Amino acid sequence: MRSVCAFLSILCVGGGLGFAAMAAPEPFKPFDPTRYSQQPTECDRLAAHPEDPYAVAPGRTRPQVLEVAERAAAACERAVGDDPKNPRLHYQLARVYGYSGQGEKSLPHREAAVEADYPQALFVVGYLYLTGLNKNPKDVCRAGELIRESAQQGRLAGQVGYVRYALQGLFDDCPVRKDPAEMLEFLAAARKQIGGDYYQGLLVDVLEEQVRART
After folding, report:
1. pLDDT of 143-180, one tens digit each?
2. Is residue 127 part of a domain?
């Protein structure tokens, strides 16, 4: 049987510096989707992300989006034109462009979704700033800000991802907050979302242990 480290290999590598003493965490700021239309569009049906907590249609995987990329791009362009302030639609249009190898066309739509604090976009665009993938500029400090904001908005990937990257020391030279009390709150919130998933539970357990060990 494969070891736990084989399943959670990203956690079995040390890194980062010790954290300062705990401070009062900032309050979470959940996203309010009612500010925007929740009516499903053809863009939603063709390009919603399976893990987007604010999607209004069943999610489609990357291969599924690519199968209908031309239709999806046209549908999302129309949807954004009809509802230009809706961050969900901007995120989905950026997703289609990005998958289609048109990362440069994604950039303004990624930023529009980020400016509206759309949780899925905060995490995804933060990850793109972290890695420089898909023609996105690489900016680790900007990545830390966005991924942390996605965690505050309740995005599971942001809650565990931010803690992991902070533990690795990726944000040590950045002004983004690196507070252990807040990280433990992120992990407690993540635990409520994962239910009984065994491996995700192990992930949160190990991250919690590492945060406590460094305070």
Report:
1. 999 999 999 999 999 999 999 999 999 999 999 999 99
2. no
